[in-house]
Structure formats: C-alpha cells, structure tokens
Amino acid sequence: MNVGQHNSTAVRLAYGSIGLFLTALHNIFIIYYVDLFITVYNIDQTSFWIGETLFLIWNSLNDPLFGWISDKNSLSSSGSTRCGSGISEGTSPDIVLKRVRTLRIYGPLFAISFMLLWIRWTWPGLQFILCLCLYDGFLTVLDLNFNALLADLAVSVNARSATILRREYMKMNKFLLQTVETPDRNTGESINNEIPRKQTVGVRLFLSQVFVNKNFLSFSIMNLLQVLHCHFNSNFFPLFLHYLLGDYVSSITASILLGISFVTPHFSNVYCLALCRRYGVYSVVQSLFYLKLIAGMIMFTFGSHWPRLLCLFIVSNRIFTEGICKLLNLAISDLIDEDYVLFNRKQPISALMFAVTAFIAKPGQTIAPLMGSWMIESVTGKSLFKTGLGGINVSNKKEVKNLDFRQGCFNVLVGVSIGCAIAQIVTWSFYELRDKKLKDVKEARRKIELGEEQSTFYSTEDSTVGKISLYM
C-alpha cells in the first residue's frame, strides 16, 4: 500500500462525486415533494399530517439506530488500535473500507426510492408515507457513512476543508475509490504505534457522556433550528415565488431563480471554507447568522412591495441557509475529535456522532412543512390544501382576518427567518470548541494516534464535562 494515499486527488474526487449526487437528488426532493403531493396528487390535509407525523418518528429513530449499528464495535470492544505493517480488525482503514462498501450497496437503492416519488402508483396518503420513509431510510445510511468519512479520512481543518472543497468543484465524472490506504505519518494523522485505548461503553453510558457536553448541546440546538429553516425555505420556495413574485417575474425567470438557489450555495461554500481555514468555523457560522438577521430586518422594514428586493431576499435566504448547512459537518467533525479525546475511545465514533446530532436535528425536516402550512393558514385564513373542486380552502374561523394572502406569506417568510437567526445567534454563543480549545483537541488527537507520550490535560474548565486526562 502507498502511504498517504487517502489524501490523494483521486480520493477527494471520489468523495466530492458522492456529495454531488446526494446533494442534487436531495435538493430536488425537498423542494418538490410537498408541492407535488399537495398540488398534483391532491393529498388531503389529514393524510398529510398523519404521514408527516409517522415520518417524524421514523426520521428521528433511524439515525441513531443505523449509527449505532455502524459504530457499536468502536464503543464496546476493548483492545488496541494498531497500524503499520498489518491492519487489524477494527482499525481506521478497515472502518473506512466498511463505509465505502455500504455506500456502494445502498446507493442504487436510494436512487430507486427517489424515482418512486414521481409516479403515482397507489393512494396518495399511502404513497406519501412509503416514499418519505423509504427515501429517508436509504438517505440516512448513505449520509451517515458519507459524512463519517470526512472525520475518518482527515483530522486537521485544512485537510477537511480541502476534502469538502473538492466536493464543491465536482463534475459528474467520478464515483467511488476502489481502496483506501493507510494515512501518512507526515500529515500528523497516522496511526503507527500500538496504543491501548480500552473502553466498554453501553448505550446509556454513551448518551450520558454525550448529553452532558455543553458544546454538543449548543451545536445540536442550533443545528435543529438550521435544519428547520433550511427545509422551510426549500419546501415553500415554489409557493413563495408564485404568490409573492408571480405578478412580477415570468415562469422562465422563476426557473432561473430556482436554479441559482441550487448552484450558488456550492460556489459560496468555496469562499466560506477558505474563511473557515483562516478564522475558524465558529466565527464564520456566527457571522452568517448575523447576515441572515440583518437581511430579514431590512426586508421587514421595506415590506412586500419592492419586488426586486423581495426577489433578492427569497433567493439569498435559501442560499444562506443551504450554505450554513454545508459548513456544519466541519463542526460535527470537531465534536467527534473532542469526544475521541475526552472519553478515551478505541476509535473515533464518526457515524454514531453524526447519527446522534441528526437524531436531534432531523425532526426539523418534519416540523418545517407542518409549521409552514399551519402558519400560513393561521395568518391568512387560507389553507394550502385543495378542495375536491381544486380551489383553496378558506377556514371559516379565520374569515375575520383581513390580511391579504400575499402579505401573509411575506410575514411568515420574513418572520421565520428573523426568529431562527436570533435563536441561533443565542444558542451558538454557548459553543466553546473554538480557538485555543479546538487547537488543544486537535493536538491531543494527533499525539494519541502517533503514540507520543502526553502529560498535558485537555482543559474543559467552562464545560459541564469537566477535566478529563489522557492516559497514554
């Protein structure tokens, strides 16, 4: 095996290709599935709410379930981590190869579940539930293993940023690497010596370890709000274009705006990743929250009667939310490093950590369309669900409201944006894994994996985890 192969251009191209395909299909799905079932398949409101409720349960449970299945050996096994002339079972390269095989197996099944959405093959209520659950189940398996590769293949912020950058630059001409080699010692990310890291951890102990970490809790709450806002913008993007800008832009222009909202986050992410390398993930994400808040306040001040400004806000609002989502994997990878160092893991539990963060954040995917449809009906008095005659329902209890439907949609759009931005700024301010503390964690992990003696402590004076020493 060639040393340092995991940082080669081929591996980054392969990683970027997978990200490209997943992102393309998922963006199409989340933008159109609500609109498709409401306006084309004419699903009734009761079936829609029942389907979303069942989806909420499944969507929340499958992440920790699949993550635990993927990484349980790294928690409950004891022994030593070994790399060098031979690769033993459970070492880092084996974990990477296991994730690669999983991506190959479940990729085609994910594509089939995506295709089932576009053909009406049964009663809309039943199809809605089956399509959501099948699609999300296969997406979860792919997402967990794909995101875990980021933490498994690289430790430093620069290496992780370079891997993500390759994904953003991708053309659709590569797929998955055949083999993944042992990390290069020269990068400071190798595992050359035998290092005893004995640990026996059950589900209850693991959860107690994770949920007392203030950094994890701060990130998880912020991430829940981000997922909710991201899916709210995506689910109702066609509706906002139609009702807020339908009188000012043509259908062709609307399609162009939709395309811009797809592509621009990838270009902006290239710049944001460069900023992350220079200023850190925390500072960049916090700045984006403030920009989102300022944009919402400006739009609220001017009102809904400035079509050009409104057009810019609708598109930029989705670009902001999508762009922030693409940076958060770097923060999760940092949390994986912290967990590995703090709790003396046998291996970094990458997939399981991504699963637990998703367990908390995924309900936002279901809450977004339910909250959006409820808020629009509450503010405007009109339901998005069609009657048997194809018209829009008007709730009798809401007839007293005088707000125009267009103005009501505007109030919901801007209000959700401002509210999420304020809540995220507050919760993200409690995240302390940055600057010197983050550097200490990175250095501790490198020393652990290099087998060097380490007498220092990773100080968590301000964290509820407390001081935990590293016994080498």
Account of the 3D structure:
The protein has helices at 9-40, 45-76, 92-115, 124-153, 157-168, 203-211, 214-235, 237-245, 251-279, 281-302, 307-342, 350-361, 363-380, 405-428, 435-450; strands at 80-81, 195-196, 382-386, 392-394, 457-458, 468-469. The chain is globular and about 65 Å long. With 472 residues, the protein is mainly α. Helix 1 (9-40) crosses helix 5 and helix 7 packs antiparallel against helix 11 (307-342). The strands form three sheets. It has a two-stranded antiparallel sheet. A two-stranded antiparallel ribbon has the order 3-4. The protein has 15 helices and six strands. Strand 3 and strand 4 form a beta hairpin.
Can you tag this structure with a few keywords?
single chain, 472 residues, two-stranded antiparallel ribbon, 15 helices, globular
Strand order of the largest sheet: 1-2
What's the total number of strands?
A: 6
Instruction: Tell me the β content.
Output: under 5%
* Average of per-residue pLDDT values: 75
Pairing-aware structural class of the strands and helices?
mainly alpha
Q: Give helix % range.
A: 55-70%
Largest beta-sheet details: 2 strands, antiparallel
Count every helix, treating DSSP H or I runs of 4 or more residues as helices.
Answer: 15
First-residue to last-residue Cα separation? 28 Å
Compute the gyration radius: what is it?
A: 23 Å
Overall geometric form: globular
